[in-house]
Amino acid sequence: MLVDAGENDEGNTVVNYLKKQGVKFLEYVIGTHPHSDHIGGLDTVISNFEINKVILPDVVSTTKTFEEVLDALSENDLRITKPEVGMEYKLEDATFIILAPNSSEYSDLNNYSIVIKIIYEETAFLLTGDAEKTSEDEMLENGLDLSADILKLGHHGSANSSTDTFLDRVGASSAIISVGRNNKYGHPMSETVNRVLDRGINLYRTDEMGTIIVTTDGTSISFNNDATGENNSAQE
Ligand SMILES: [Zn+2]
């Protein structure tokens, strides 16, 4: 399964990485929401792999990036599956469940982000796309089971995601921020980083560590970079 594919010029990086891992077929491809830093490389992925199911939120964008994804889908006879909260999908011995979006319309494209929880035996991973407080609050209000060991923080660690209540409900032991080094948005925000560190959650950041690989056997979880939170408290 692949969730998001980076910017337009990063599609080949994603494809080459997957091929290097021996991936020949993708059971599921999720484009969390139509921003180019998430679906930019998706057209390249779609043209390079056999895919079973593509899940995209029920929102359109008029950008060239989005149109390229639609073109790639139709060229490969793929239809879009829309996310439905509560829907569960099998991924061999693992399962993933859709937790958001919980509304049909939002003022901010980020809140259309497909949020999924992947469960494998005793471990759970929560991937939140660019979901912000609005979507987090809906997941909380709807009483969804958000508990997870690993949380990929919403919206690159922006201030308007990963609220106190949300972090408490997830109760993760480790969090990951996917964020570009020296990005123009100033992500991640120090207040968000502090909300994570104040809870004793180990924080992993791609801007500091590069590619982060998390592996589980269903019981224990390991990271490719074992220098955990200690490493990161210095950057506040
Ligand atoms: Zn983003």
Number of helices: 8
Q: Indicate the low-confidence ranges by residue numbers.
A: 228-236
Q: Quickly give the CATH architecture of the largest domain.
A: 4-Layer Sandwich
Order of helices and strands: EHEHHEHEEEEEHEHEHEHEE
DSSP summary, beta strand count:
13
What is the helical fraction, as a range of percent? 25-40%
According to CATH, what is the topology of the largest domain? Metallo-beta-lactamase, Chain A
Taking the alpha carbons of the first and last residues, their distance comes to: 34 Å
Question: Helix/strand/pairing class, anyone?
Answer: alpha/beta
Notes on the structure:
- By secondary structure, this protein is of the alpha/beta class.
- The chain has 2 domains: 1-82, no CATH class; 84-236, Metallo-beta-lactamase, Chain A (4-Layer Sandwich).
- It is 26% helix and 23% strand.
- The protein has 8 helices and 13 strands.
- It has helices at 11-20, 36-39, 42-48, 64-75, 133-141, 164-170, 190-197, 206-209; strands at 2-3, 25-30, 50-55, 80-81, 88-91, 94-100, 115-120, 123-127, 150-152, 174-177, 202-205, 214-216, 221-223.
- It has a 7-stranded mixed β-sheet. Strands 1-2-3-4 form a 4-stranded parallel β-sheet, with helices on one face. Strands 12-13 form a two-stranded antiparallel sheet.
- Strand 3 (50-55), helix 4 (64-75) and strand 4 form a beta-alpha-beta unit.
- Helix 1 (11-20) crosses helix 3 and helix 3 (42-48) packs parallel to helix 4 (64-75).
- The longest helix is centred in the N-terminal third of the chain and has 12 residues, at 64-75.
- It starts with a strand and ends in a 13-residue tail after the last strand.
- The site of zinc ion (ZN) has 5 residues, from helix 2.
